[in-house]
Amino acid sequence: MFRLIQLIKVQTTPFQLLKNTQLKTMRLKLSALFFVLFSAILFSSQTFAAKDAVLTQAEALIRKGDFKAAYLLLEPLEDTRAGDINYDYLFGFAGVESGNVTRGAFALERVLAVDPNNKDARTEMAKAHFLLGERQASKAEFNNVLALNPDQQTKKTIDSLLTAIQKIEGTTTTFGAYAEFGLGADSNISSAPNINAISVPLFSGVAFALGEDGREQSSNFMQLATGLSFREPVNDDFAYFGAVNLTHRDNETTSIFNTSNLDLNLGLQYRVEENNFSFALQNNNFYLDSSSFRHAYGATAQWLYNIDSLNQAGVFGQYSKISYAGNSIRNAQRSIGGVNVGHVFQHDYRPVVFASVYGGREDADDSSVNFLSQSIVGVRVGGQLNIGTRLQLTTSLGVENRKNDENDPSFLTKRKDNQYDAMLGLRYTFARDWSIRPQYSYTKNDSNIDLNTFERQIFSISIRKDFNW
Question: pTM score, two decimals?
């Protein structure tokens, strides 16, 4: 018996807004892009005049990329050396790069008070403004650097940064695409029980044998995925967006559980101050062994509020109409609503944590099969950790409770399920727009009807190429 993932996945984090699915805040995206692009700006030796041994050591640490060590070396000297332009620049640069942005910004302000035309200090100050959530000040500072007529490489880098910030802020048209290839192993390709027979109370407890396709079976698999997305601003407040995603999976041991998924969405976004509203229409087609299995369409709406630069909260709602090819008795309508929160820690790795609570209903279209209708309540927590500029770790845990409305006519009881999910993944960017993504997921469904109890483990590794323009 093949069990299917839900048509429209419950939105579980406030960091899933626009791109392809909905999983990172605008500010987090800007931060990540800023670190990548900023590596092109050189740490200029022209900033320094004569330096003592401490400053020479700090500069060497900065050139090696050990910003935290440089900051810890210089920080105890601030009371006595503040005002020394060479010290202030080194301390400011190390502070911003090590995550001590406010202290670094103060030191850079001291440099600019003495030397307002210092291009290196202004460039780093622009970054400090950005990391403090002061995007307009950041762009103004970059424009100040351009007004100082820097060299062509610096001009090119700053123009790229300004354009990238405009794209992610939504003030210019953006397009994105990806192609992905993966291999993996699945312990239970059909989410079936690990039993050979099932007792059916309707027939006085007589045990019926389960066929091979109705029992747990494992397989290696190959997976392909591709997608295309766009975002088109109407003005500073409104934008429309859309995406199409296609995935296909071939199992090694059997083809009857090969799956394909085609997902389309088109929506509108409205931003005002710290509020971000979005509404999207969605259409999904799920195929099993190359044949249409399920079609669903619906809509999702979301309100996200940026409490400050480190905290976000929101509410969301989803509706979908689900129909099954050749099995119309299962046709249903699904409604979900929930709240979510997220927090970014001020740490070298800038860890992100999120939590979501949701609830809703799935109601059968045919009132004669209300034993298929159910109430749904769930909670999900997760996190993200940036380990340097190339490696990112993500994890999530979820629990979902489902209770059906009426007794199942075969098992003479109301079905009750508790499903537990866990995921751990890595993304390693080994070249520009290229990444390797190993992932492990575990699912366990406990049900009072044995036919619906199962465990499933999936390990996969994929390589992905992203395109952005």
Answer: 0.72
